[in-house]
Structure formats: C-alpha cells, structure tokens
Amino acid sequence: MNRQDFLGLSTQEPHRVVSFPASQSLHVSSASVNGAISTGIPQLDEAIRPPSPEDVLGRTRCAGTNGIPCGHVTEVFGPPGAGKTSLALSIATSALRNEDKVIWIDTGSPLPKVRLASMLKQSLDATSSDTPEDPIKNLIYFHAKSLPHLLALLVRPPNGFPPRDAKLLVIDSISALFPSYFPNPSEFKSRLPQSGVTDKTQIQWLMNRKWNVTSDLGNQLVKLAATHSLAVLLVNQTHTRIKGQPRATLCPVLAGGTWENSVYTRIVIFRDFLPEDDGDSKGVRFAEVMKRAGKALTLRLDENIVPFKIETDGLRGIHKSSSPIILPQESAETTLSASQRKRKVDEIADSQDEDSDGEFGWVESDDAGLSDGE
Predict the structure, then answer these.
(1) Where is this region: Disordered (predicted)?
(2) pTM of the full structure
(3) What is the DSSP letter of 354?
(4) Sign of the CA dihedral with 267 first, then 272, 274, and 278 last
C-alpha cells in the first residue's frame, strides 16, 4: 500500500531522496507546535495571532490557535503596576484549566497563590466542562534567589526539567536580577578607579558582559521553547531612555540584537488617557501587540491595542468604544532645535529690579485677588 506521511511524501521507496518546497517544510514545522494558550481576553488573543491565508471572510478562527503561541518566546513589559503579573496569572489560569502543567519561576515577588486559586475557581465555575478537582496541583513553582540560580536552572537544567507534559513556562520577572549584577555604564565607570582595573581589553569585556549573558539566556529560552513545545512567557521590566529619543521613553530592561531575535511575540501594557465623555475609563489598561510572529509592528493600528480591566476573578476585556490618546511623535531635529535655542543678551534681566512679569502673563491686579483669598 502506498501510504502518504505527514509531508505528503511517498513511503513506497524509503531509500529515495525526495525534495520538497521550503514553504511546505515551514508549514510542517509550524503545524507541529501544539496550538496556543489564551490570555483570558478574546480580543487580545485575536490580535496576537497573525493573519493567515486560511482566514476567510465570515469564517471564525479556531479558538485553540488564538493566544500566545507554544514553541516560542513571548515577552510582556510595562511600567510598575500596569498589570504584567495579572496577565501572566490569567494565562497560567487558562493553561491549568486545560489540565496542562505550568512552570512558574519568580525572581523577587512571590507567586500570589491565593489570587491564582481564586481566578482558577472562578474560571472553572464559568465553564461546564469536566475538570479535575484541584488543577493547581499541576503548578510547578521555583524561586530563583539570584541570577546564577536562574541561569543554572535554564542553561544547565536538572534531569526532568522541564517535564514532558508542561505547556507553559512563566518567569516573573526575567530582568529583576540583572541590575544588581550589571550596573549602568556611568555607575560602572565610576567604580573602575576603586577596583584598580586599567586594562582596556578587560574593561571592554566587563562592559559587554551583560549583553553576552542576555544573549546566552535568550538563545537558551528559544531552545527550551522549541524542543519542548513550551509557551515561554517572560515578564520584563522597564527603564527610562533619553539618549537618542525625542522624549523620555520607557523601554524594556533586557534588549539588544540577540534578545530581539529571541522574542517571537511582544506585548506592552500601559495606562493612557481616554476621552472625557467615556464613563468606563476608570482603571482601564491597554495591551498593545508590538511584535507578532517574529516581526515588529511599526504602525500602531487600532486593532492591535486592546483595553481591559483587572478584576478579582481575572481580566475582563472592555468594549473598545474609543482609542487611547496617542501623542504625535516629534522628530528629534525639532526637539533639539527648540532646546538649543538661546536667548539674546538683551532678553536676559540684569537684576531683579527689572519688570519681567509681563513675559509670564502676570498682571498687577492679580495680587488683589490673592490677598482677598480668592
């Protein structure tokens, strides 16, 4: 019997070398990944999945393929208190609800087990499917006390890690341990005279050590995700970057060329302003997909920005009646020209006796209002 295998190649002649298109091989490799894990917000699940040729107008997508993809690395970053851990808990709840094993590694903040159990209970009560009595038993918890502990667990994992039936690996947060071991360049240069290091080669190696460790960590996470069909979820913190930016910008702590290639999907969580006439704007967060299917999204489209709220029983997506107010980006040349403009000599007051109140719109009659307590 002439049986066809998964690639569509005939197995009647086993010693024959058959060539097939690279697109077919890519389709097979992507099909081997076991679906995706829902974020708990259907709109965000839809925004994460890239459009495919199979999508037909009027045909709904398969729910099992919406969410963070298995076999790849997903990064979530945002300012403190934006809801990064809440999104990670929601994704872990979706995996535990489907009887999948979840590995949670924390590097500082302990796992909120009470909240996770509450979210899982509410999720199970909302579904009528048969589920185990205590699915939280499928949660495997690790606490990484230092960066060497985290690197040893991921780069040189012990036997049986990760388990074969594990579906999700969460690291909260992947960047928390780096500042204590790798200070910023200005602080590092100030410590060099005290350390007595004068060799330029050694100084350059010390300066690049953070990026070397970050690259090795990113490559190892990609390897774990691909070989074990894991959905790796990384919570990344932010810092303020001023150099080379038109204004102060929040950027991920862990970045770089190799790290960028390791991240398959990137989601940023933030708060923003809504129009004043929107009555449901209190406590609204936004999750924006910035990278999808390994490609950065340069245009900020409305369908990639999903508003949601954090509630006691999980995350709730809200109706997108209005979009957040996105300030237009100013060019760096305009910002620099405005900041470098200097006043003329005759514009600078020589003493405090000169009348310069008119420059600021201050009128003498305003003093009377202050004295009357208005």
Answers:
(1) 329-374
(2) 0.73
(3) S
(4) positive
Torsions phi, psi for 345 (to 5 deg): -65, -40
Summarize pLDDT for 195-213 with one digit per residue, the tens.
Answer: 777 777 877 777 788 888 9
For 44-138, list the strands marked E by DSSP. Answer: 68-69, 73-77, 101-106
The upper half-sphere exposure of residue 58, i.e. CA atoms within 13 Å in the direction of its Cβ, equals 0
pLDDT tens-digit map of 7-56: 344 444 444 554 545 544 444 444 444 689 999 999 999 999 877 655 54
> How many Å apart are CA 11 and CA 13, to the nearest integer?
5
Phi, psi of 31 (to 5 degrees): -75, -20
Residues facing residue 305 across a β-bridge: 288
Place of tokens 């050694």: 202
Which of 177, 159, 294, 175 shows the shortest CA–CA distance to 226? Answer: 294
Q: Are strands 36-37 and 73-77 parallel, antiparallel or unpaired?
A: unpaired
